[in-house]
Structure formats: structure tokens, C-alpha cells
Amino acid sequence: MDPLESVKMAVTTLTANKLRSGLTMLGIIIGNASVIAMVGIGQGAQKYAAEQFESLGPNVLFIVPGSREAQRSTFEVPKTLVLADAQAIATQVPSVNAVAPQINSQQLITYRNKNSNSIIIGTTPEFLTARDFEVGQGRFISELDLERNNQVVALGAEIAEKLFGSEEPVGKQIRIKDVSFQVVGVMEAKGAFLGNNQDDTLYIPLTTMSSRIVGRTSPYGIDLTFIVASAKNEKSVEAAQFQITNLLRLRHKIAGDDDFTVRSQKDALEVVDNVTGALTIMLAAIAGISLFVGGVGIMNIMLVSVRERTHEIGLRKAIGATQQDILIQFMIESVILAALGGAIGTFIGVGGIGLVGAVTPLKAGVSPIAILVAVGVSGGIGLFFGVVPARQAAKLDPIVALRSA
């Protein structure tokens, strides 16, 4: 039989039972849409994380208290870094350009009748260079502010808008933990970093933070939340990481495991990529189960179709159709159901990715490989699960088929 004629007959048969054909394709549609959407969203999450870390600058290093094991196994991070460590890094590590020690704390901020629970960062003037921040209005913390423990604050763009609205913030007084601070500057908008809004943050002198807000708890000096260091250039990052590690091991007299961790942007990005990649594979695998369920549905409906069309099969065999013709006929119907369901599911999946990209910060992208794999797998599933009913139809005895009609 002419293959084109077989395709026409298959289309005619399927369109004669539109509702049943549509329900048969539903599992394939859902499976394809889910796989394509999950892969696209996973890739979008990886791109989003990469952009977030790139906003830190390619040369940034974070020195965090506690070993990797201690950070994973305890809720409270040990306080093993002090201001003297940051000063030693700044003066003794030649591959470092700027070093900014930080003390972070969440406190209640008050201006007149307006309140906000925001992150306070105690730091030094080098913070601007190390973190690539810019002042939009007024000034940032100065060395004189550190020496005198001045009660001055630079506001993030969003917290300034929240507290002052259209009012000029520079020169005004706000209260942090019932301590009065004068606003000396407003930062340029920086955006969020992995869910942390950097524009809803306030910056005060490190010494003032230690003495007036959080207090001193280390006998070795001002204890820090972490230290940010920027290497001189991208090629110096590994050297800076090695030199900082050796310096701190000597300062802390470490013979065994480190009591600190030096992380680069690349290290953090690799961790995030591994996590998001594993989640993407897991979600795509779960969504792929729908494709298998859809294949079972196709086989089930095609088996029912063989029983319903016993008379038709017997009649076609009686007028000369071979077993191969009947086999091809039912195989084509299965593949059409699966391929059409795959195409519809692809459009739905691509539309879902576009919707996610429109309403969330994730720049979800359409993966051509995911589309090809999903459509190819759905077509293969139709072919695979169509074999049993097609063989059953092809083996029917024409005399028995006509008598049973």
C-alpha cells in the first residue's frame, strides 16, 4: 500500500474520534510541556545565578569564618576572623587590591513615624572598591569616621526612598537600635543578590558598629562577619586565594583544618551550577514520567481500537491487504498521536517558559536540545507502545474477523 494513502487513512480514522484522540494525546502533551518547561526554567536559574555572581565582579574573594564542614554542620557560624586579619591581608598580600571587613546585623531603623527592619553593614571606606559600589548622593564612610567612631550612615537607594520619600535624606537623623545616626550619603541602586536586597541596606563605620550596635565579643579584637577582598585582576584571583589562605593559617597558628574558608566567585558559581543542574535533571526526569504514562495511554486506546475495528481489519485483509499493511496502518496512527501530542506540548512548554520569564527575574530560555529530545522521545514512545496493538491487528484472521463483526 502507498505510504501516503496509509497516512491519509490514519488521519481520517483519528479525526473521526476527536475526543478520544485528544484524551489519548493528553499524557504526551503534559509530558512534553513539563520536560521543556523544567529544562528551560533550570537553565534560566543557572543564568540568573551567574549574572548575580558576575555583579560582584570577577575578582572578588570572600573570607568566611569557619571551615566548610563547620558551616554545614552548625547553625551558628563560629567567629574566627577579626579586624587585624583584614588589616594583615591588606598589607601583606601583594595580589590584593582592596580589603573590606564587614560586620552584618539586622536592626530596627526608625525615622519619625516610619520603621524598617533592615540589614546594617559595618565596614570601611575600602568597601566601595572591593564590592564595586558607587555613591549616588553625598558621601560614604571615611577614615575619620572610623577613627572617631562617628555615628554616620550611608543609605541604600530603597531604604532611603522608604524612609524619606521625596524628602532630602542627607543631613537628617535616623535611629538604629535607639542610637541616633546622621545620614551622610545615599548609594546608587545595586539590585538584589540571590534574594538579598542590597538597596535595603545601611552602611555605618565598622568601629561604630562594633562599639554601639553589636558590641565586642572577641578578646583578639573586633570580630567580623566576613571579609571581602578584590584581587588586582582576574588572573590574580587564584594567587590571592592561595596567599590569603597561607597568611591566615600562619596568623591563626593552624596545623590541622582551617577555621576559615576563602571562596572566589568561581567557586560559589560552581556550587550553584551543580545544585541547579541536579534539580533540573531531577525535575525533568519526574516530568518525563508523564511521557511514559502517555505512551501507556496510547497503547491502551490502540488496543481498544483494534477490538472496535475488527470488521474493518477483516474486510481489508479479505480484499488483499497484507499483515504488513495492517501493521503499518496502526503504527502510523500511534506515531501521529504521539508526534502531534509532542508538538502541542512543545508549544505549551515554550509558552510556559515565556510566561515565567515575564513574571519572574529568571531569564528562562528555550533549549533546542530539550525540544528535539522531548519530541523525539514522544515519537519513539508512540512507535514503541504502538507495536503491540499493531501486531495484534496484523495477526487477525480475516475469516474470524468478518464473522465476529
TrEMBL record:
**Which branch of life, at top level?**
Bacteria
Predominant place of localization: membrane
Q: InterPro entries per the record?
A: ABC3_permease_C, MacB_PCD, Macrolide_Exporter_MacB
Arranged from A to Z, the UniProt key words for this protein are: Cell membrane, Membrane, Transmembrane, Transmembrane helix
Keyword Cell division carried by entry: no
Q: Which protein is depicted?
A: ABC transporter permease
Quote any Pfam family the record assigns: FtsX
Q: Which residues form the MacB-like periplasmic core domain?
A: 21-246
TM helices/strands, residue ranges: 21-42, 281-306, 326-359, 365-388
